[in-house]
């Protein structure tokens, strides 16, 4: 599902709201999650999961085309851990 599909589904279930308002709300929520992760905070949505960031140290990688060594800088990557309720629903136990 992409963001526009999410907005469309929410709009279908909430006909009293304008689609542009729903799009602004979804965008605001996602922007806040990104800002929190950029600050190093953890974002937890109960029943759904938690977003955090993990540091990947600098290393020497390989260019897959040429095989040459390439320096890869230290970086942060987003990590998502599912919540218990989401795991149970995915496995048909809730």
TrEMBL record:
Question: Which GO terms are recorded in the biological process aspect for this UniProt protein?
Answer: DNA recombination; regulation of DNA-templated transcription; regulation of translation
| Family annotation (Pfam families) | Bac_DNA_binding
Report keywords, A-Z: DNA recombination, DNA-binding, Transcription, Transcription regulation, Translation regulation
| Record-linked SMART domains | BHL (SM00411)
Q: Which domain of life is it from?
A: Bacteria
Acyltransferase as a keyword?
Answer: no
Which chain regions cross the lipid bilayer? none
NCBIfam families in the record, alphabetically? hip (TIGR00988), PRK00199.1 (NF001222)
UniProt xrefs under PANTHER family: DNA-BINDING PROTEIN HU, INTEGRATION HOST FACTOR SUBUNIT BETA
Similarity comment: Belongs to the bacterial histone-like protein family.
Give a short account of what the protein does.
This protein is one of the two subunits of integration host factor, a specific DNA-binding protein that functions in genetic recombination as well as in transcriptional and translational control.
Task: Give the protein's recorded name.
Answer: Integration host factor subunit beta
Species whose genome carries this gene: Bosea vaviloviae
Gene symbol of the encoding locus: ihfB
């Amino acid at each position: 599902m992409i963001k526009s599909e999410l907005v469309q589904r929410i709009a279908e279930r909430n006909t009293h709201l304008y689609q542009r308002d729903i799009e602004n709300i979804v965008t605001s929520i996602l922007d806040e999650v990104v800002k929190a992760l950029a600050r190093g905070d953890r974002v937890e949505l109960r029943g759904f999961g938690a977003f955090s960031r993990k540091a990947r140290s600098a290393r020497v990688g390989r260019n897959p085309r040429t095989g040459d060594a390439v320096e890869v800088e230290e970086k942060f990557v987003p990590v998502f851990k599912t919540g218990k309720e989401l795991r149970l629903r995915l496995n048909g136990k809730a």
